[in-house]
Specification:
alpha/beta; Arc Repressor Mutant, subunit A; 5-stranded parallel sheet; 10 helices; 54% helix
Amino acid sequence: MTIRVLVVDDHRIVLRGIEEILLKTPDIRVIGDAFTGREALERVGCDEFDIVLLDISMPDRNGLEVLKLIKERKPRLPVLILSMHPEEQYAIRALRAGASGYLTKESALEELIAAIRRVAQGRKYVSAGLAEKLAFDLEADATRPVHEKLSDREYDVMRKIGAGMRNKDIAAALFMSPKTVTTYKSRIFQKMGMRTGAEIIRYLLERGITD
């Protein structure tokens, strides 16, 4: 099976270099490229890809913002960040925003290919150093309430769920589309380890959190 890749990078030389490297890999095929965040979102909306290889530094909008928009529109589309920025600056933030992995542009060719294959299978890819840092973060998070893992927007949606509101009512109250509400709910259930609105309501009542 061929892995169909969209490469997003504002440096044409870097983008062409990546394309030439992947061209030599039989099971990976670059079928699209984009130089800006807007172009990336257009390509994602029009074509089918198995993975997006995304840079963080973009001329029109931050790559993390593009990542979040991609995940809102196509939650199941894996996004692998390939950036010039070191892991300690953006990796954990990118993973929390929905990225399936993070690599620096200094990574070896073999590592890039391995990461693409792994992420295309629906798995995560992080370096050994980043995995260790994530383990420490998980240990530190163990004593925190589950809802503190949510973003501000997810927290707003969670409170509306706790109030028993339907998707269309939540959408109207928070000025977003019902489809976006569905995406947020999926993330909330995943982060909180819950499956139903009833579980959310019970959790909030037990902690005295009301809308």
